[in-house]
Amino acid sequence: MAERSQTAPEAGNDMGNDDAIGGNVSKYIVLPTGYCGQPKKGHLIFDACFESGNLGRVDQVSEFEYDLFIRPDTCNPRFRVWFNFTVENVKESQRVIFNIVNFSKTKSLYRDGMAPMVKSTSRPKWQRLPPKNVYYYRCPDHRKNYVMSFAFCFDREEDIYQFAYCYPYTYTRFQHYLDSLQKRNLDYFFREQLGQSVQQRQLDLLTITSPAGKRSW
């Protein structure tokens, strides 16, 4: 049994496919089947309602295992690769297996030793999980989609843990970087607004020229 914020779609045990994925999960509390009462330590809380976050649904498979469904790219529902989410309310020495079950890519660097990123509130620097704990395979239980499974052991109860496909680089961070370049008045850097995205975000046109200032298109 699981509880989810009212802004996210319901996810009951009868949902066996990824058609029910809506928005990102928001403080989604996973409770054991038949459990009533307030969440205890070890009842994981998932969240992806932040910039660059992506996690659309969580299904608990067993006490230690969770199937995670990622949302597709905007305007491209067949492309599902990126994930970025947090987990809190953990118990010390709690071991879990997370399965990202609806990848769309047939080939992935996860097959060649790449591993997801993790950080926590007390250890804010991104680190890669040990590759020996990461598996990428085609799963017949999930429409033969490719699945990436990784094992993890939580070690600090007060920490909030964050997991991501690779190093996140947000739109806001990128805009701050462009602002800093523009303020330097470099004679070889030109920034113009090309338009807006479907989400009303600014689309920049960047032109890098020779120091003499002559534009190269």
Name the quaternary structure.
Answer: single chain
How do the helices and strands follow one another from N- to C-terminus?
A: EEEEEEEEEEEEHEE
Q: Sheet bearing the most strands, described?
A: 7 strands, antiparallel
Tally of helical segments: 1
- Record the strand order, biggest sheet: 1-2-3-6-12-8-9
Average pLDDT over all residues: 87
Question: How does the overall form come out from the CA principal axes?
Answer: elongated
Strand content: 25-35%
The number of strands is: 14
The separation of the N and C termini measures: 57 Å
Give start-end ranges of low-pLDDT stretches. Answer: 1-16
Calculate Rg over CA atoms.
20 Å
Q: Structural class given helices, strands, pairing?
A: mainly beta
Q: Estimate the helix proportion, in percent.
A: under 10%
Organism: Prolemur simus
Domain Peptidase M14: 167-217
InterPro entries: Cytosolic_carboxypeptidase (IPR050821), Pepdidase_M14_N (IPR040626), Peptidase_M14 (IPR000834)
Family: Belongs to the peptidase M14 family.
